Amino acid sequence: MLPVLVATGITLLLLQPPVDGELFTALADMEELLETEAVLITNLDSYVQAQEEKLMQLRRKVHEYRREHTEAARDVSAYLSNPVNAFLLTKRLTTDWRYVENLMTYEVGKEFLENVTSFRSVLKFPSDEDLNGAAVALMRLQDTYNLDTASLARGMLNGVQYSTKLSAGDCFELGRQSYLNGDYYHTVLWMREAMDRLTSEVNRTATKEDVLEYLAFSTFKQGNIQTALSMTEELLELVPDHERAVSNKAYYEKELQKEAQQKILRGDDGSEEVPIDTTTKIQKEATAHVYDTSERKLYEQLCRGEQQPPIELRSQLVCRYTTNTSPFLRIGPLKLEEAYLRPYIVIYHEVMSDREIERIKQYARPRFRRATVQNYKTGELEFANYRISKSAWLKDAEDEMIRTISRRVEDMTGLTMETAEELQVVNYGIGGHYEPHFDFARREERNAFKSLGTGNRIATVLFYMSDVTQGGATVFPSLHLALWPRKGTAAFWFNLHASGRGDYATRHAACPVLTGTKWVSNKWIHERGQEFRRPCGLQLDHSEEEF
């Protein structure tokens, strides 16, 4: 029985917030769940074998009793006249039967349940929040990459078959998790899919009554009262005494009556059923920083690879070897690929080896914590749903290899690492992403980086430590630019103009990982100490209109 909340004359399913859990935020942690599952499978298999052994012993007793009883039934007097048979009959109904009763009442599962309890102290188990987070991640992937619900339920992602099909029960759970989040749009999508799959399932994994209950109410919440009423009536045909359905049916009927009355005398002259004008559209004028297409839409299009900078700009980009005036790079120049000219965004190729990547992962894994963002008002770090990943911070002093990477960043950028932040290592979880944001602090964020005393973030170096099968691009919506992860490469850009003003065109995002795993690390470089390495010019290097 689902909990209920009575409000405004309608019976509502109670939204229960999930408890804390963070395994879904990093695939590195999710890998350990497979170890947990392997242990549980072994434990469950042992339990099944014990149950089968118990049943086998009971079957042997049944066979033994039936054999003796059949023999006695042929000639009761002759059977009982034999003192041995009389003894055995008495024994079967006393000590033997007590053994059978004890065997029947013996709880085979108790020992194995105790095992599971002990496992929880040493193995990682997902929480309700992890389940909810994994479901939300699937919804995010579905929306960002325009994935069809039926195809996703078949285990197909962008036309590629990756996994087994979802059952009706699986689809129902995805819908239920969406419902718990107040996401009625996805609740309807997945409950409809659950209903479609129920029709073809031999061994049903969900009930039509449960699906209809969630589907009807979510349809109502989307404003379709008539359809919600029809679904509720269908539910009442299956379960006539369903308390919530009875209450909701009366409410829906009352709401439909109100709608019918509101339609009357809509026109100024008293005429009925005057159509509403839906043809007039107000088009806002586009400017350099306001687009007809919303940032969200641009972001999703870039994640899908549907947008790119104009050919006029791309034709000016070049690839070359560079030394950046570094003496060390004169004997080993870096491979540089220009990605954008203004702001200047480049990609360095083959700047982190596989050995370095594995060493960094080794250091980072035990320290992973859910990634945070800085509250622009307080300057405090906090969790946010728009950043789903886990991160760890590595100091130069910990390992010569980490110090080598910092020196390499200095050679790549020409900037000092004396005031740079520690190397941040990030692993993205299921549908892991980071929505559009700035790396630098804006004027109103007065408390940002205050404790560091090193000024604003002047530049970013982002190392890609893994290839990603699908998704996971770094996108700059206002530039229509997407950088796709390639193991061993690094992206570099200045967050600030030479004047120290923030470059708002560097607003960027990390697209959700559709398939595969995404590892990155980054160095945020600060202003302090860069005065002679990147000096201010005599003239502004940006337009005042940008601010």
UniProtKB/TrEMBL annotation:
GO terms for cellular component: endoplasmic reticulum lumen. GO terms for molecular function: iron ion binding; L-ascorbic acid binding; procollagen-proline 4-dioxygenase activity. PROSITE patterns: FE2OG_OXY. Its main location: endoplasmic reticulum. InterPro entries: Oxoglu/Fe-dep_dioxygenase_dom, P4H_N, P4HA-like, Pro_4_hyd_alph, Pro_4_hyd_alph_FE2OG_OXY, TPR-like_helical_dom_sf, TPR_P4H. SMART domains: P4Hc. Pfam families: 2OG-FeII_Oxy_3, P4Ha_N, TPR_P4H. Its EC number is 1.14.11.2. The keyword Ribosomal protein does not apply. Keywords: Dioxygenase, Endoplasmic reticulum, Glycoprotein, Iron, Metal-binding, Oxidoreductase, Vitamin C. It comes from the Eukaryota. Gene3D superfamilies: 6.10.140.1460, q2cbj1_9rhob like domain, Tetratricopeptide repeat domain. Its cofactor is L-ascorbate. Transmembrane segments: none annotated. It is found in: Endoplasmic reticulum lumen. It is an enzyme of class 1 (oxidoreductase). Belongs to the P4HA family. Catalyzes the post-translational formation of 4-hydroxyproline in -Xaa-Pro-Gly- sequences in collagens and other proteins. PANTHER family: PROLYL 4-HYDROXYLASE ALPHA SUBUNIT, PROLYL 4-HYDROXYLASE SUBUNIT ALPHA-2. This is procollagen-proline 4-dioxygenase. It comes from Anopheles stephensi (Indo-Pakistan malaria mosquito).
